[in-house]
């Protein structure tokens, strides 16, 4: 995906856009980083987000947006190179290290992140969090998965339904 | 709040997460987490026939397919919808993801076919032979 200013922006400083979180915090960020979001890229290509306007993001709070932008800023250079075909092994290893560290966070933050990535259509971030959640789920029983992701204890009805499914799939537990 | 979130995760995100699991046990477990996850994930038995066991052991060579007990495990109805194997390809030399690799002879095979017992689909492959 091309950075939007690559066509018209030979005027030195990178183009900046302003994003406004649901709790009204303003974030100024390079257009190239914000454009990792397919949704924002459309608005930015239309000339939105510059100057005093800002793009409101009613579904993303400031804590989540700051985390999302941390990811976008880190990944923007590689994305501008079309997936970084000429990135060095060191660059790639550094991005991978960043990614691993980045998702090493509480499940509630992972949830906010994957929902923001989904809303803003940031494919790389969505896939990174999905992989992390899958890794957290692997090898766990349904109850352990519920605890890992902070589900409340099942209601008696839910417990009965889970027991019924245990019976239905009893062969798998033999 | 977060928990309410995971239990109503958009279906395409659930699909993306489950696509990154690899074992049947994991597919089974996420299917049982809560009603919402159950609705948007597919348990393994719904699409994967299971080759359970050989009926009798043999010292060497390939097993005759008829010597295996072939079951699709779905609830308490074993064998549902499983077709009989092609009679001219009696030997099984491998299985993966619901497909069986069948050959016509255990010593000098001339035909190699992938066969899927649920749909009775077969795909002929070039038969590998030993270089002598």
Report on this model:
Chain B: Residues 87-129 form the KIB1-4 beta-propeller domain. Chain B: This is F-box domain-containing protein. Chain B: Residues 6-39 form the F-box domain. Chain A is mainly alpha-helical and 174 residues long. In chain A, 30% of the residues are buried. Chain A is 54% helix and 7% strand. Chain A is built from 8 helices and 3 strands. In chain A, α3 packs across α5 (107-120) and α5 (107-120) runs antiparallel to α6 (123-137). Chain A has helices spanning 31-34, 38-45, 62-80, 89-102, 107-120, 123-137, 142-148, 156-168; strands spanning 16-20, 26-30, 55-56. Chain A has one domain (4-138): Potassium Channel Kv1.1, Chain A. In chain B, 20% of the residues lie in helices and 24% in strands. Chain B has helices spanning 2-6, 11-18, 24-31, 35-40; strands at residues 50-54, 63-64, 68-71, 91-96, 99-103, 112-116, 121-125. In chain B, β4 and β5 (99-103) form a beta hairpin. Chain B is elongated. In chain B, 25% of the residues are buried. The model of chain B is unreliable at 73-80 (pLDDT under 50). The A-B interface holds A 107-108, 111-112, 114-115, 118, 126-127, 130-131, 133-135, 137-142, 145-146, 149-152, 154, 158, 161-162, 165-166, 168-169, 171-172 and B 1-3, 5-7, 9-10, 12-13, 16-26, 28-35, 38, 43, 45, 73, 75.
Order of helices and strands of chain A: EEHHEHHHHHH
Proportion of helical residues of chain B: 10-25%
| Strand percentage of chain B | 15-25%
Spatial strand arrangement across the major sheet of chain B: 2-4-5-6-7
Low-confidence stretches of chain A: 1-10
Q: How far apart are the first and last residues' alpha carbons of chain B, in Å?
A: 68 Å
Structurally, the number of domains of chain B stands at: 2
The greatest interface here is:
A-B, 36 and 34 residues
Helix content of chain A: 40-55%
Biggest pleated sheet of chain A: 3 strands, mixed
Kindly report the average pLDDT value of chain A: 86
- Which outline of chain A best applies? elongated
Number of domains of chain A: 1
Label the overall shape of chain B. Answer: elongated
Count of DSSP H/I helices of chain B: 4
Could you tell me the number of beta strands of chain A? 3
**Helix-and-strand structural type of chain A:** mainly alpha
């Amino acid at each position: 995906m091309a950075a939007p200013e690559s066509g018209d922006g030979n005027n030195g400083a990178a183009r900046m856009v302003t994003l406004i979180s649901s709790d009204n915090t303003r974030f100024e960020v390079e257009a190239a980083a914000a454009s990792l979001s397919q949704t924002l890229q459309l608005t930015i290509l239309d000339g939105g987000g510059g100057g005093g306007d800002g793009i409101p993001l009613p579904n993303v709070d400031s804590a989540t947006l700051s985390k999302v932008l941390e990811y976008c800023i880190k990944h923007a250079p590689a994305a501008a190179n079309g997936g970084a075909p000429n990135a060095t092994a060191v660059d790639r290893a550094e991005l991978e290290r960043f990614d691993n560290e980045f998702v090493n966070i509480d499940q509630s933050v992972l949830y906010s992140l994957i929902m923001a990535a989904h809303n803003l259509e940031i494919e790389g971030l969505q896939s990174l969090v999905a992989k992390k959640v899958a890794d957290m789920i692997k090898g766990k029983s349904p109850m352990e998965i519920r605890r890992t992701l902070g589900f409340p204890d099942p209601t008696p009805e839910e417990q009965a339904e889970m027991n019924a499914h245990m019976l239905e799939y009893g062969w798998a537990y033999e | 709040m977060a928990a309410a979130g995971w239990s109503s995760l958009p279906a395409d995100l659930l699909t993306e997460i489950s696509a990154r699991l690899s074992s049947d046990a994991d597919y089974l477990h996420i299917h049982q987490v809560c009603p919402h996850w159950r609705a948007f994930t597919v348990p393994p038995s719904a699409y994967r026939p299971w080759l359970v066991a050989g009926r009798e052991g043999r010292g060497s060579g390939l097993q005759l397919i008829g010597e295996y007990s072939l079951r699709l495990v779905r609830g308490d109805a074993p064998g549902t919808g499983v077709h009989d194997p092609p009679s001219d390809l009696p030997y099984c030399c491998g299985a993966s993801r619901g497909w069986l690799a069948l050959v016509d002879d255990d010593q000098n095979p001339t035909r190699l076919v992938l066969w899927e017992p649920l749909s009775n689909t077969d795909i002929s492959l070039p038969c590998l032979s030993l270089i002598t």
